[in-house]
Amino acid sequence: MRDVVITGVGLVSSAGEGLDAHLTALADGAPYTDAATFEPFPVHPAAPLEWDRQIPKKSDQRQMEPWQKLGCYAAGLALDAAGAKDDAALKGRMQLIVSAGGGERDYAVDGQILTGLRQANNPGVFLNERLMGDLRPTLFLAQLSNLLAGNISIVHGVTGASRTFMGEESSGVDALRIARERIASGQDDIFLVGGSYNAERPDVLLIYEMGGFLWKKPYAPVWERPAQGGGMILGSGGCFLVLESREHAAARGVTPLAAIAGVASDRSRRKPGSVEGALHALTKQLGAKPDVVLSGATGIKGITDEEQAALRDIAPGAALHATGDLVGHTMEAQAPIGVALAAGLIARGGPSEALVTSIGHWRGEGAIRLTKA
Amino acid sequence: MALRDKQGRPLVAVTGMGVVTSLGQGKDDTWAALTAGRSGIHRIERFPTDGLRTTIAGTIDSVDVEPFCAPMLSERLAMLAAEEAVGQSGLNQEDFPGALFIAVPPVEMEWPQREALAKASGQDGDVTYKDLLKAAASGEFKPWHDLFIFGTVADRVADRFGTRGSPISLSTACSSGATAIQLGVEAIRRGETDAALCIGTDGSVNPESLVRFSLLSALSTQNENPEGASKPFSKNRDGFVMGEGGAALVLEDAEKARARGARILGYVLGCGEKGDGFHRTRSSPDGMPAITAIREALTDAGLAPDDIDYVNAHGTSTPENDKMEAMSCTAVFGERMASVPISSNKSMIGHTLTAAGAVEAVMSLMTIATGRIPPTINYQVPDPAIPLDVVPNVARDAEVRYVLSNSFGFGGQNTCLVFGAEPKGA
């Protein structure tokens, strides 16, 4: 089996743009949340970006909604960081795995339709007419899950082949797991892997509010929320990583930030204690002995406490960061962001081994072990 | 025979298959209708179609779910197909010894749910998402969180069959079903699992989905004669017809399957894929990505173009796809392509979107097993630009050892699979 290393990181979130900005904020930054726009739901909003820097064509920008632009932008940063941006042949054989949900809706149209439906003599016919008349034809392409990958292929020329994984937090872990396995086994040499999330959307807030998962008070740190009822604060952001075999990186003359020593994930029908048990099992499977833990904890009552308890046993001496405190909960992008930060810390010569956790807000447990490259 | 391929990887056997389409429940019903040249396309009765440009589809109306919505129907279709497939394989139906790879349609809350939230909000003026959010806070709608997140269908299927590990939900648009199979093949070849349950499912014919495709001018509008609307490779083709379906395949390391005495239905010999960065909905004009995907699949299978006896086409019946597909096949197979049978199941079941690659994989393996090639129906007006043997209108008997199945999708997705009765040289 071949070693798999990270050679490029692209990261955008409420904490800014780029790995350095994030590592600085991780060390001493104050979390940035917007409590007003979606009151009573705080969100970690995306920092303003100059889209032109990574998505040069306005025509491409117009075809994308924010979740895709965030992802496309982060993908461009990762390609730059890995020294791959200008190598068309390399990008032509680079594989792509994206973890994604779906895209934005037209909120005004939805509201108008709901208002009109109430009075409509024939609601079915009214709905048809309004959808045919009011939906922007290309909006569909901004909604389709696999069109983040499609846009990355178009904008950045990454055209080996793409696969899009769905399934909330788990999809981010499994995207990394499958990419790593394909490189380790020799099937492929180089991947772009990651995801993005736009939290500044009423439709996603709606889904998680229906489930009762959202934090509705002013910002409080992830680990402190369970004692006050628990809840997650969604965050906007995007993260892509360039993964390749050690040999492939060496042949290209690029210096890896860190190695991905293992990715483990599982699911179960959750009951009290199952998250704690899963974390023990996954970290044992990975042989994890971390100096630092980048936790993707949500702040939701029960599962967050269980994670904290498990981590006390697994990594009693390790520094512990909740990535949710830095960027919010970015759902499909949370695991890639944890890995990016872990790789950055290792590359700066701090810890020699890091553990990234991903306990899904509703299902799915994952862990990733990073070591010095 | 060797149970490893020429590259030393485990051979991947198919030991169970299940399918449900608008033509019938179960692979035998679907196959009988498909080889009889019968169409499953009909007028939509599920919702009013007034005001729509397209009023026909291959919906599956025989399956009841509550609440009726795309994730519930997609889940049910996946379950039905998987029950048939796992049942046929003889593997444990509640403790499946392998991983789950499932292609599911991207889901989101639908109009009946939005309306219910709007009503519950008590807002009698202009409704906004603020009102829906207010209604959501009641906790009354909690089950809809689970229903409308992306991982739920996979989670429920994983729970029902006891598959191992984290299930992969995936989308590669209209090639998703093929990608699910490809992921299973790769996991077995890497030795991560001895078995994989690979599923494609799609039950998403609802007003908004239909309108979205309609606004992209992707759908046939020849509503007068629903059975005749899907006309792949015909000169008068004018778009695809949405269909619903579910298909499941049990893949196994051939050596393990043989050792437990399983009946091997065929092999997935090769997978090929290639991205396309040309355009969001259109293929590269030179056909390079599709051509590469086909060639990669053949190479992966250890076959030469001349070995392929039949092509199960993507064949959507859109002007663009069918032209591009014909051109790409001709580029790979050369002059011989004029006499290689190529037919489109979509002429009868419509485009089952996320499920299509898996449904068509099952039909490809049925073609091999029965020596009967399903036709392309509604082929009355040949397109001079596509001078191919599309097996027009009537099924044909032929010895078929190796099949190429094509799947292409929005977002530059091109995935091709090669199936065989036996590996070459066995």
Question: What can you see in these coordinates?
Answer:
Chain B: Belongs to the thiolase-like superfamily. Beta-ketoacyl-ACP synthases family. Chain B: Pathway: Lipid metabolism; fatty acid biosynthesis. Chain B: Pfam families: ketoacyl-synt (PF00109), Ketoacyl-synt_C (PF02801). The complex is a heterodimer of chains A (373) and B (426). By secondary structure, chain A is of the alpha/beta class. Chain A folds into two domains: 4-103 and 144-371, Peroxisomal Thiolase, Chain A, domain 1; 107-140. Chain A has helices spanning 19-28, 58-62, 66-81, 88-93, 107-119, 123-134, 139-143, 147-156, 168-184, 202-210, 246-252, 274-286, 303-314, 323-327, 334-347, and strands spanning 4-13, 16-17, 95-99, 161-166, 190-197, 237-245, 258-266, 292-295, 319-322, 353-359, 365-371. In chain A, strands 1, 2, 3, 4, 5, 6, 7, 8, 9, 10 and 11 form an eleven-stranded mixed β-sheet that branches. The longest helix of chain A has 17 residues, at 168-184. The two termini of chain A are 16 Å apart. The relative contact order of chain A is 0.19. The model of chain A has no long low-confidence stretch (mean pLDDT 97). By secondary structure, chain B is α/β, with parallel strands linked by helices. Helix content of chain B is 33%, strand content 18%. Chain B has 13 helices and 15 strands. Chain B has helices at residues 27-35, 70-89, 111-121, 129-136, 142-147, 152-161, 176-189, 207-215, 254-259, 288-301, 319-333, 346-349, 356-370; strands spanning 12-21, 24-25, 42-43, 56-57, 99-103, 168-171, 195-202, 245-253, 266-273, 310-312, 342-343, 372-373, 396-397, 402-409, 413-420. In chain B, the strands form three sheets. In chain B, strands 1, 2, 5, 6, 7, 8, 9, 10, 11, 14 and 15 form an eleven-stranded mixed β-sheet that branches. In chain B, helix 2 (70-89) runs parallel beside helix 6 (152-161) and helix 3 packs across helix 4 (129-136). Chain B starts with 11 loop residues before the first strand and ends in a 6-residue tail after the last strand. At the A-B interface, helix 5, helix 6, helix 7, helix 8 and strand 4 of A face helix 3, helix 4, helix 5, helix 6 and strand 6 of B.
